Amino acid sequence: MLSTLWAAMLLSADIQPLALLPTAAVTISQSQLVPDPTAAFQAGLTAFQANDYEGAIAAWESALTGFQAADNSTQVALTLNALAAATLSLSRHGEAIAYASESAAIAETLDRSDLVAQALGNLGIAYQASGQFAQAVATYEQALNRLQDQPESAAIAQLYGLLGNAYEALGDYDSAIAAQSTSMTLAANLNAPSLEATAQMNLGGLYSLEADYDRAIAWYERGIALATETGFLGSAAYGLNNLGGTYQKLGDQAAAIAQFERSLVLAVETGNRQLQATVLTNLGVAFEDADDFDRALRSHQASVAIARDLETPRLLADALNNLAHTQLVTGNFDQAEMALQESVQLLSALRQGLADADKVNVFDTQIYTYNLLMQVQVAQGDYVAALETSEAGRARAFVESFATDATQLAAPTIDELRQVARQLDATLVEYAIVPEDDFTVQGRQRGEAGRVFVWVVAPDGTVTFAEISLAGVTLSLNEQVQQSRSAIGALGRTRGIGVVQNESIEPATDLNDLYNRLIAPIAAALPDDPDDLVVLVPHESLFYLPFAALQDDAGNYLIDQHTLLTTPAIQLLALTLEATPAEGGAPLVVGNPTMPSVPSFDAELQPLPGAEAEATEIAELFQTKAILGGDATESQVAAAMPAANVVHLATHGLLDYVDTTDRIPILGAIALAPSDEDDGLLTAREIANLSLSAQLVVLSACDTGLGEVTGDGVVGLSRSLLSAGAQSTVVSLWSVPDEPTADLMKAFYTELWQGANKAQALRQAMLQTRAQYPDPINWAAFVLVGNPAPLSSHPARL
Fold it and tell me: Which of 187, 400, 601, 622 is most buried (CB neighbours < 10 A)?
């Protein structure tokens, strides 16, 4: 089941009622003078405090005319900011943006940092409410910078709270918790109970998003009590709504409905229509969970009606999503699809203009709307449309980072997917994990898999669909994937360290079970010729599954039967096929660099003599010289990578190393030699900032195909390489043993040297390595991602 993200509180400080209130922008009439603009301003303030926002706007427009006629710039700036607050309270966000922007500009000319910060605060609220999250963060930070000389003030406390709300909207919960904690501490020191209660309840919301429900309830109850005691009923209304959401996640529908209904009463009493819409959609979800479908539909429809009147696209998208879920379970498929198509369009617009890392986080909070639309289309028997939705709901930020023009950003059509199959003469196999029916979405959480959808697109364009039920299984799909890895010894984190064969578990049992679950239902649609290409498009935990090592009932591995290629999305693969091959660049081969120190690791990185021998032999094959030991510094390797047509890095891969140089941490690094210029850790973030043209990048290291599994695929080293411009990459799914890896890589390049395409070369290398090292731990770790074409230049053609 899907639910909204319970709304963050966008509240004003009780100390400065006009400082950081919601904002908006309108055309201002200056047709008449006002005899007493000060009295008009006060009348507007009285109306605003009584929640009469239209009355406040009328009074403040009159005051503005008078202050402008009197050339009183300070009062003009204050009145414009007040109008921004009033129009924001009516969810007229476009007007709020204009009012706040004009107020900030005038305050700048007056060199009034306090007024500038107030206007920027309202401008940030308007940006956030209209879905412009990146602009909101930048605006709040700009406002905080203007108040650097006021270390403790109500304005700063509120700005940190608002900044936390914006981080939450971006899915960056760690930064959000830090900002809300700062806001709460400052508010407590200032004896500002409204701000303190708001921060406490926002912390409750964040812990609920992270599934820490005991801590969430404690923070909610603390904030609600403080807000109620001090008379801030608007704040209490938000807290009650969010507390209801937490009880809903715990399955206590009666408690959830009680809290939602208390919140709705206060939302109506305080005239907060945006909160009314949010509470109504949450009530609809709770009623559906209680099997009261008539009340659920009425609540959702009321929420959608309010949201359509407001300029809040995320609110409308959530309301439509939840309405559609109730329509799905009651069999109204056509109406559900219409609602979800509109929701998807709204969500797509919310991601425009964001940086890549923020797109990944935001998309991670949106993927279940795509998943629900896919379910509706499958329920209608429209499997082709469901495949298009499945594609649209994965790797969107990745595609946008890779695309060169706007035409490549549109959601893919079945004709485009069939074109990829024809162009590669390949069979495409796309998986989509569907959560259990009782899963309620909050933030970036993932539900346990209840079903798996699988589509097979043949080279002739034929589409085959299968639905795999996971009901009644002893282990969840995630647990099965993990156990299959453990059973073959896929342990440890770095090449040559910690790989231990687990003798107590029989690998074939797990590998066969997963074959029967994921491959057997579609086996008849797969090609008979093992040289024919099969493109795997995994989903969520399936990115960690060693497909090559899955075994049928006869004991045959999947790699015996098929040549495999992996991609996060078919559309992304299509973009790699369009890239122009790099010509003339020399291969770059690196092996066994002098290992850097990694302070966050318990053990030192050990030398890799097998990697050095591997690199030396591969360099000879390419008629070049390997860069080894202390010569393989991070700065030298990073400088050489953009010009290389093939890059081979045989070293340690560090999945657990976290690059914290930016607000959003990114996992993954390659160990290289340190120097005076660098620390020897080439991180995934640094790789993404390179400009590569390589036809192939091989990370002959450990765990280089892993990372953080998100709605955008695996965020890690392989993603960074493709985003930087590499056409394809070979990466590993676990800590690979040193000697078998060296043999596999030599076999791989020998096949490439003889003209095989990359997928065929990797298959043959696996088969040859298996002949000497039979256990899958030794040969099944590596996957090819991206364009499988043969190298356009290699030693045989030099």
Answer: 187
Residue 276: CB atoms within 10 Å: 23
Pick from 586, 726, 716, 596: nearest CA to 651:
596
For 422, the 3-state DSSP assignment is helix
Please give the model's pTM, rounded to 2 decimal places: 0.71
Distance from C-alpha of 382 to C-alpha of 375, rounded to nearest angstrom: 10
Q: Are strands 707-710 and 713-716 parallel, antiparallel or unpaired?
A: antiparallel
Of 130, 128, 127, 85, nearest to 103 (Cα)?
85
**Beta bridge pairs of residue 659:** 666
pLDDT at residue 664, as a whole number: 56
DSSP states of 344-403 as a string?
A: HHHHHHHTTT--HHHHHHHHHTTHHHHHHHHHHHHHTT-HHHHHHHHHHTSSHHHHHHH-
**Which residues 6+ apart lie within 8 Å of 281 measured at CB?**
3, 4, 299, 300, 303, 318, 319, 322, 323
| C-alpha to C-alpha distance for 619 and 608, rounded to whole angstroms | 17
Burial class (CB in 10 A: 0-12, 13-18, 19+), 337: buried
- Report phi then psi at 650, rounded to 5: -105, 100
Q: How confident is the model at residue 265 (pLDDT cuts 50, 70, 90)?
A: very high
Q: Where are the beta strands (DSSP E) in 56-127?
A: none
Residues 558 and 690 in one domain: no
Q: Which of 629, 631, 577 is nearest to 608 (CA)?
A: 629
The gap from C-alpha 663 to its chain's centroid, in whole angstroms, comes to 14
Exposure of 153 by Cβ count < 10 A (0-12 exposed, 13-18 middle, 19+ buried)?
A: buried
Whether residues 594 and 475 fall in one domain: no
**Distance from first CA to last CA of the chain, Å, rounded?**
59
Q: Is residue 270 domain-resident?
A: no
Residues 187 and 78 in one domain: yes
Interstrand relation of 588-593 and 463-469 (parallel, antiparallel or unpaired): unpaired
Task: Give 343 or 9, the one with higher predicted confidence.
Answer: 343
3-state class (DSSP) for residue 54: helix
Strands 588-593 vs 646-650: parallel, antiparallel or unpaired:
parallel
Q: What is the mean pLDDT of the chain?
A: 82
Q: Would you list the DSSP string of 481-518? A: HHHHHHHTT---SBTTBS----TTS-HHHHHHHHHHHH
Classified as helix, coil or strand, 431 is strand
What span, in angstroms and rounded, lies between the C-alpha atoms of 193 and 197?
Answer: 6
Whether residue 715 is predicted with pLDDT greater than 50 in this model: the reply is no
Instruction: Give the residue carrying structure tokens 């989903």.
Output: 539
Which residues sit opposite 7 in a β-bridge? none
Domain boundary residue, one of 169, 191, 213: 191
Q: Domain limits at 38?
A: 1-191
Residues 215 and 224: their CA atoms lie apart, in Å, by 14
Tell me what pLDDT residue 662 has: 59
Q: Are residues 95 and 180 in the same domain?
A: yes
- State the pLDDT at residue 603: 64
> Do the beta carbons of residue 61 and residue 83 sit within 8 Å?
yes
Q: What is the DSSP string of 684-719?
A: HHHHHTS----SEEEEESSSTT-EEEETTEEEEHHH
* Whether the predicted pLDDT of 668 surpasses 80: no
The arrangement of strands across the sheet holding 696-700 comes to 463-469, 449-457, 426-435, 533-537, 563-566, 782-786, 728-732, 696-700, 646-650, 588-593, 627-629
Domain stops at, among 147, 165, 191: 191
The answer to whether residues 647 and 619 touch, using CB atoms and an 8 Å cutoff, is: no
